Structures are given as C-alpha cells and as structure tokens.
C-alpha cells in the first residue's frame, strides 16, 4: 500500500442503528452502511472483542518470525491488522490485510495511515479463499471463518497450514455452537443480555439475528479443533472464551 500524502481525519464512525426500525429480512452484508458503524457494532455485539484485539498483539509478538509473512484474513477495518503491526518486531516481516469488501478496505486504509507505526501494510481487496499465502508465521482469522461456507472451510485452513512455517500459528476467533441444547440456550440468552446491556433493543437483537443467521454458520468447538488438526496444525488450544465466542491458537510445530 502506498503511503498517502496526508492521513487527514479518521473516517466517520456512527452508532449502530441499522436494525432499530422494522426492515425487510435481507441477508447481512459488509457494505458501506455496515462499515460506517462497524466499530460500534462489534464492540456492542461481540463479548470480549476489546480483550481479543490487544492480545493478538501479544501473540504476534511471541510468534512472528524474522523474514516471514503475517496475514490478517478478513481484516475489515484493520483492528487485528494494527494489533499485529504493533506486535511485529522484525523489520523484514511483511504484513498483509485481506478483505473482499471494498467499503471495509477503503476505511481500513485510513486507519492504517493514521497509525504511528512505520511498518508497511499491504491491503488486498480480494476473496480470502483465493488470496496467495506463503512463508507465514502468524495468520489471523478474527471472526471471519464463520462467514465462509462450511464446505469451503477445510480447504482454506489446509492452505493456511501448508503456508505456515514451523513454529508459526493461526489465531482463529469464532462464534461457536454448543453440543448441549441446554448450554446453547443459556449461552445465547447471556449473549442477548450482553447486547441489551450495551443498549440494543429486543427489536434490534431479533432483526440482526434473522439477518445474520443465514450467512454466519457457527460450529462446535470440537469440530473446529478437529478441522484444524486435519488441516495440518499440531496443537490447538482455546486461549479465550466469553459466552459463545472463543479464540483459539493453532500451532505448527517445528
């Protein structure tokens, strides 16, 4: 990404009111309207998000290797990208942020330019299923895989594992499904209470759930772990969980 002449002001951030009034039951899309309210939306919708982002910096600092590539796949506005940027201590590392939403990439470019870290970041507006991956030490899928069709997830994770150097990692954050119906209902209720505590109305919660459930397909923690092992990672561990949101670390042993 070429350095802009002037970073200017940060892009406008609005309060998420996208589902505050009755609307047609359209599928959820990462378009310009979502990009504009995304920081507020994800902070108020994903418990633990404000903890996960700074910990991505800590994990990157631990696992980034000299002369390697680091990837944020599904980078949206670049929160994980910036965390990785600040966690990389090697000047010969290359950092890539990839997202298929042009609206997200456009705003991400602005946030990257405003950040005071001098490390170059290459942003790609393309499908992560087709982006080139190689020589990776740290890759992040931060609440991204859940939007990939289930039948395409194994191939993506296998490509990531094959591209990962010995000692490298994948940080995978996901909303999960529970095997027990009782636990699923309890965790869902707690998640909705979290949203209410952050100012969302029952109408907003209901309408967003209807819109997103057709494009966000959660799976069990056991399914995620087995797929990561099958893809070629050697160890998989949960390092964070809050209600039905988890973040895992998949490690490629040396």
TrEMBL record:
Enzyme Commission (EC) number: 2.1.3.-
UniProt keywords, alphabetically: S-adenosyl-L-methionine, Transferase
Class of this enzyme: transferase
Keyword Transferase attached: yes
Domain Methyltransferase: 72-168
Keyword S-adenosyl-L-methionine included in the entry's annotation: yes
Chemical reaction(s) catalysed: prephenate + S-adenosyl-L-methionine = carboxy-S-adenosyl-L-methionine + 3-phenylpyruvate + H2O
PANTHER family: CARBOXY-S-ADENOSYL-L-METHIONINE SYNTHASE (PTHR43861:SF2), TRANS-ACONITATE 2-METHYLTRANSFERASE-RELATED (PTHR43861)
Similarity comment: family membership: Belongs to the class I-like SAM-binding methyltransferase superfamily. Cx-SAM synthase family.
Subunit structure: Homodimer.
HAMAP family xref list: Cx_SAM_synthase (MF_01589)
Function of the protein: Catalyzes the conversion of S-adenosyl-L-methionine (SAM) to carboxy-S-adenosyl-L-methionine (Cx-SAM).
Protein name: Carboxy-S-adenosyl-L-methionine synthase
Organism, scientific name: Marinobacter suaedae
């Amino acid at each position: 990404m070429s350095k802009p002449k002037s970073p200017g002001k940060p892009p406008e951030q609005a309060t998420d009111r996208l589902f505050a009034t009755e609307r047609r039951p359209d599928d959820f899309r990462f378009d310009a309207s979502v990009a504009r309210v995304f920081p507020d939306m994800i902070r108020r919708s994903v418990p633990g998000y404000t903890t996960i982002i700074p910990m991505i910096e800590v994990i990157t600092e631990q696992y980034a290797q000299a002369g390697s590539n680091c990837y944020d796949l599904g980078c949206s506005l670049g929160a994980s990208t910036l965390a990785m940027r600040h966690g990389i201590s090697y000047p010969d590392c290359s950092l890539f942020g990839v997202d298929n939403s042009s609206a997200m990439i456009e705003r991400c470019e602005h946030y990257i330019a405003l950040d005071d870290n001098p490390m170059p970041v290459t942003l790609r507006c393309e499908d992560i299923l087709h982006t080139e991956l190689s020589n990776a030490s740290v890759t992040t899928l931060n609440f991204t895989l859940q939007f990939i069709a289930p039948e395409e997830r194994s191939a993506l994770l296998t490509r990531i594992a094959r591209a990962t150097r010995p000692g490298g990692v994948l940080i995978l954050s996901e909303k999960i499904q529970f095997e027990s119906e009782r636990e699923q209902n309890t965790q869902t209720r707690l998640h909705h209470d979290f949203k209410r505590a952050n100012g969302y109305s029952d109408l907003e919660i209901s309408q967003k759930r209807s819109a997103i459930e057709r494009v966000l397909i959660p799976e069990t923690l056991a399914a995620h772990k087995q797929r990561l092992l099958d893809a070629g990672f050697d160890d998989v561990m949960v390092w964070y969980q809050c209600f039905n949101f988890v973040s895992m670390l998949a490690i490629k042993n040396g």
